[in-house]
Design goal:
Layout: E1 9-19, E2 22-31, H1 32-44, E3 48-54, E4 60-65, H2 74-83, H3 88-98, E5 104-108
Antiparallel strand pairs: 1-2, 1-3, 2-5, 3-4
């Protein structure tokens, strides 16, 4: 049980695949039943490679590969899982949500874990 007096107050993030070398982090601050609906929506988004839920103190509550995780290599998902909570872009989004600057925000993910370009031809 997450809360007896007012329910969930979560920051729900989804890392969305845009292209091989660019993901977008979309976040929203949601409460109550809407929080669970937002979490489920982030999990099921067809291009979400990873989803995460944080409380209002910035603590990671839950997360995992999203419906779009098959679009990227497994080692990229593992690295994203390890580094997401400490990523600068994610921290900026969480700060904006926690301080109520906005209730929805999206930014390109600044990250060094993107998969390397594949070599083509006889190079």
């Amino acid at each position: 049980m997450f809360g007896l007096f007012g329910g969930n107050d979560w920051n729900v993030l989804a890392v969305i695949f845009e292209r091989r070398d660019l993901y977008q982090v979309s976040g929203q601050r949601v409460k109550g039943a809407a929080a669970e609906k937002a979490r489920d929506g982030a999990k099921a988004h067809p291009r979400a490679v990873y989803w995460a839920v944080f409380n209002q103190k910035g603590s990671f509550q839950a997360g995992g590969p999203g419906a779009g995780a098959l679009q990227v290599p497994g080692e990229v998902i593992k690295k994203l899982e390890r580094e997401l909570a400490t990523n600068r872009t994610v921290q900026e989004i969480l700060k904006a949500l926690e301080t109520k600057q906005t209730d929805k925000i999206a930014k390109p993910l600044a990250w060094h874990g993107y998969p390397p370009r594949q070599m083509h031809g006889a190079d």
